[in-house]
Amino acid sequence: MSPIDLKEIVATKPRPRQINIETVEALFALPFSDLMHRAQTIHRENFAPNEVQLSTLLSIKTGGCPEDCGYCPQSARYNAGVDNQAMLSVDEVVAAAKTAKANGATRFCMGAAWRGPKQKDLDPVLDMVKAVRDLGLETCATLGLLKEGQAEQLKNAGLDYYNHNLDTTPEFYNEVITTREYQDRLDTLDRVRDSGMHVCCGGIVGMGETRRQRAGLIAQLANLNPPPESVPINNLVQVEGTPLHGTEPLDPFEFVRTIAVARILMPKSYVRLSAGRQELGEGIQALCFLAGANSIFYGDKLLTTDNPEAEADRALMARLDLYPKQTANEVTTSNNLRHGTSSS
Ligand code: SAM
Ligand code: DTB
Ligand code: SF4
After folding, report:
1. Ligand 2 pocket list (CB less than 6 A)
2. pTM (2 d.p.)
């Protein structure tokens, strides 16, 4: 294989840069140890190597979603055993955020099972954002497609990050989702970027896509201009009743490669080891950290599915000498994490 000129690939200026799929595939195809070495080297050049950012998720409106995302237990089209729930109250959200903060999270992400918010849906979310921010937490929301003006409202309420995933490469997209277009997602990401919020955007692997298609997802993410500040990489959580249940699971080392390639091509982004950590096990997660993952969803639950217990994550981080990223006002949080405080 011809040597890959990393300087050329990861040049951050001038923008825009275009990374082609062949370049990404060439990284995927490197000998595993060589890929890990490159990813770890780039990680160390850009981040404190043992620091991990902790985000806690809360589903503020669960189930009954009109969309047909083939991986998602919250779609009304599938019988995946998720009970529909009306939107939580601001008080309920604040209580969960206080617990998350006491447990050591620095960011709180509120998710809703919507195609996108109507104005009557957005108004209470704005109150939630303000209240969570007042606790000294970074705020994130994932509410689906945003219409003109909605990103500005969220930004003005104090939302720091908006999560909206591309999910996969355009070539595979229609096999997973038919009720919204890839371009709809790109338009929402533009609105988020233009509002001045930070962009959180990633995808899912293990949906039956080819390696080239995984490379296509990473190329899409890396070619966003600028790349997302936060890149969640989800390993499909297979939920019975969803169309993707029964998909051949991805080789876990291929998941690690995906993290490493994301780290190399988005050197300054937080790469989040996201859904599917339970299935990966601790050894593979350790390899993911070595490959440059520096953020996790932290807390016993994702939106509707299980995440590793917070206590197990604290223990794993301690065994790997990883420590939580703090924000300026989060010094007590880190102490809580070390001592395992679990109540507000
Ligand atoms: N409804 C909004 C939307 O789709 O944008 C926000 C919530 S949605 C659950 C957020 C993301 O969660 C999806 O884009 C997908 O990447 C991820 N996700 C959902 N179900 C998943 C699963 N079973 N396994 C892995 N990731 C999943
Ligand atoms: C993301 O990329 N992963 C999170 C968050 N952004 C919203 C969601 C994972 C959901 C996993 C399935 C569930 O728990 O329902
Ligand atoms: Fe709805 Fe989001 Fe689930 Fe798609 S991923 S079905 S839009 S909740």
Report:
1. 57, 73, 111, 142, 163, 165, 202, 232, 234, 237, 274-275, 302-305
2. 0.92
